[in-house]
Amino acid sequence: MKTQILALALLFSLFGTHTKAQTEQIKLSVPDYIRPLAEQWAADYNALHNNITFQFVSAKNADNANSISVSTDEDAVFFARVAVLAVTAKDSPAEYLVKSQRFNKKKLKRLFFLDEEDEERKSAATEKLHIYYGGSTRSLSRFYAQQFEEEPTAYRGKKVAGDDRYLTEAVRRDPFGITFNALSNIADTRTRHLKEELALVPLDLDKQSRQILDSGQLDDIIRLLEQQRIDGIPVAKVGLSYDHRNPQLNSFVRWILTDGTAGVHNFGLLQLSQQELTAQQHRLDPAELAQN
């Protein structure tokens, strides 16, 4: 009897060890403008592969072995695009100062960045505004600066630590605050409308484009930004950075490119063209990975 008990205990022990060995964890380090989409990915993929678990971690807790991070760098595997828009608090003194103007790229550059040679800005009404920009490594502030051919150190105003979602909280608290943020951060994806407490900085656009932005309808704005390039609204390809030598991570990213991109509109992101998605898929071909 004792022999049988010992044998069963050994069997269960081996089974438990085997099950544990077959279970793998993927760490996801994502900013808030991607987080809801990434959570949907994790749930859907886990339903198909119950031996894979997911953990959301901060940038400092991500590692190279089994982590995936969101990036706009060229070496990332792109899956969507993100639009970045200048915003302020609705019905605030800041909105009053900007609503009578029409900002093009040059004026936005004057608004957000230091320029000691630009004397015109010193007497401008917008000089009263308080600029807020992101200071974290995952902030879109670096990308936004690149679009104006500026360094991230050239921003005027106050750097905000943490995720970019804190930028919109900063302008809600400051009557003269103004910032920029991802479309997915400034929209309510349930009502499909821009958040009620925020107002877009008016841009120098044609009548039809201006009406679409003024309407605040998320899906109309997404459609507009996918169809044409809007001066003053930079759009970045957003992708995934990870160790391509990890087959489990490669499998997950392949699944994202084939099954996880159809719903990006639901989360306030812009789609890549099918041609671009196919190019990203080819980057994960075994032969291509072997060369890299």
Strand percentage? 15-25%
CATH class of the largest domain: Alpha Beta
Structural class computed from helices and strand pairing: alpha/beta
Secondary-structure element order, as H and E?
HEHEEEHHEHEHEHEEEHHEHHH
**In DSSP terms, counting alpha (H) and pi (I) runs of 4 or more, how many helices?**
12
**CATH architecture grouping of the largest domain:** 3-Layer(aba) Sandwich
Silhouette: globular
Question: In total, how many domains does the architecture comprise?
Answer: 2
Total DSSP E strands: 11
Oligomeric grouping of the chains: single chain
Distance between the termini: 58 Å
Report the mean per-residue pLDDT as an integer.
Answer: 88
What's the Cα radius of gyration? 23 Å
**Name given to the CATH homologous superfamily of the largest domain:** Periplasmic binding protein-like II
Estimated helix fraction: 40-55%
CATH third-tier fold name of the largest domain: D-Maltodextrin-Binding Protein, domain 2
